[in-house]
Amino acid sequence: MVDLSKLDKWTLGKCFDHSVLPKNTTEKDIRSGCQEAVKYNCAAFYSASPYWTPIVVEELKGSDVLPATGIGFPFGAQPGVIKAAETEYAVKAGCRAVDTVMNIGALKDKRYDVVAAELKDFKTAAGDALTKCILDVNFLTDEEIAAGAKLVCEAGINYCKTSTGQFDGPSMEQFLIMKEACKGTPTKLKVAGVKFPRPQNAYAFLMAGADLIGTRAAIQIIDALDQMREIGLVPKYQG
Questions:
Q1: First CA to last CA across the chain, in angstroms?
Q2: 3 state DSSP class of 145
Q3: H-type alpha helices, 40-77
């Protein structure tokens, strides 16, 4: 669990995956987002497609911010073989972290064999890159959240992620169900789609056990740290 009392704004940056995901994204947007991720010491920078990966790699060169992208984004409805090919393409282009969207329809149909095979192929295609699987919990029942999270853990995926951030984000209750399903495994927890008010909710998820927050608002949330400490939501710095 993240100990916010030990983090200043710079070290806090590693709790965030910064992103630029709008449909009308331009090269200028991608380059600016990468520069923000470096300035704020974020863990990774995400584009919505491997199309942007060469630009991301160029902008992040010399930093420890990971070039990253979404796979099967944002619906996850592509066949597993397509997602695996997209993953392999992204990694060859320079991505060091990849987030795939689970096949939600297959999960809801209880086609767990389909989901498991897809995740296995994704993990293999990713090689040494960090792997994260998105459940998009707002489309799922509590039972489906738990079942999906367990499949992610069984596949050895590095992170179980709540949402794409393109639709409704998770409630705290949904996050805690995912957390419980991953308990006792090496799989870490990532939250995306943080609802307004974003700074307060983002810190609440970190305090509840999230290891990473994926958001387009990383800069706003990190900049709010002093204010969150002033109002008592985040513990005082004891670094």
A1: 16
A2: helix
A3: 53-60
Quote the longest CA-to-CA distance of the chain. 50
Name the residue type at position 83. Answer: K
Contact call for residues 169 and 163 (beta carbons, < 8 A): yes
What residues are annotated to the active site?
99, 161, 190
* Pair 134, 102: CB distance under 8 Å: yes
Report residue 234 CA to chain centroid gap: 22
User: Cβ distance 212 to 16 under 8 Å?
Assistant: yes
pTM of the predicted protein model? 0.96
CA nearest 155: which of 130, 184, 118, 108? 118
**159's tokens:** 């992170």
Q: Please compute, for residue 236, the number of CA atoms within 13 A of its CA located in the half-sphere on the CB side.
A: 2
The set of residues, in sequence order, having a beta carbon less than 8 Å from that of 232 and lying 6+ positions away, is none
Between CA 123 and CA 118 the distance in angstroms is 9
Phi, psi angle pair for 14, to nearest 5°: -70, -5
Residue type, 223: D
Going residue by residue through the chain (239 aa), what tens digit of pLDDT does each one get? 899 999 999 999 999 999 987 667 899 999 999 999 999 999 999 998 899 999 999 999 999 999 999 999 888 899 999 999 999 999 999 999 999 999 999 999 999 999 999 999 999 999 999 999 999 999 999 999 999 999 999 999 999 999 988 888 899 999 999 999 999 999 999 999 998 888 999 999 999 999 999 999 999 999 999 999 999 999 999 97
In whole angstroms, what is the distance from residue 19 CA to residue 33 CA? 7
